[in-house]
Design goal:
The chain is α+β, with helices and mostly antiparallel strands and 203 residues long. It is built from five helices and eleven strands, in the order E-E-E-H-E-E-H-E-H-E-E-H-E-E-H-E. Strand 4 and strand 5 form a beta hairpin.
Amino acid sequence: MEIKDTYNTIESPSEAVLFKDKNSKFWGYAFPIQEENDIKQRLEDLKKDHHSARHWCYAYQLGTDKNIKFRANDDGEPNNSAGAPIYGQIQSFKVTNVLIVVVRYFGGVKLGVGGLINAYRASAQLALEQSKIIERTINSKFLIAFEYKNMNTVMRIIKEKKLDIINQELELSCGITISVRKSNASSIFEIFNALHQISIKEL
């Protein structure tokens, strides 16, 4: 069975997009994120930029495979009228590691739940359409531990297999952390695991 080891995300923050309905303004933004801490910072920045707005509604998704985390936040709008339609666009575009924020300035006329759902969905869609969607690989990390005398053997395999080194500590006893594309992970593990005096474990 082929292992799916790629995912789609956005390359960089989108340009701000504007959707208007009955004098209400909806500013849409899409950001690439790596962890939940990134979200707080992005929201704080937007609240400074749009300090007179009414609502800062958002949705995000992080992770791949079985480790997906997501959240949709209505920020004071009626239940499921903002965060859910924003999250629906993340699903529709099939992207992850993405935060979408829609900032609303109230224009004096109520839009109703249907109008809000449409406005938040459209703003999220516009933000993602403004973004460059790219494919990335899902990688596994391994720690290879060995004594210095086995350095040449380890480095030769890393070079032959074009493995990415994330971290290395080269002393009397050495440790090298490598990143391996998920579909190749088990074969790389077997190569190192079969070697005498060299240990490998997944991180």
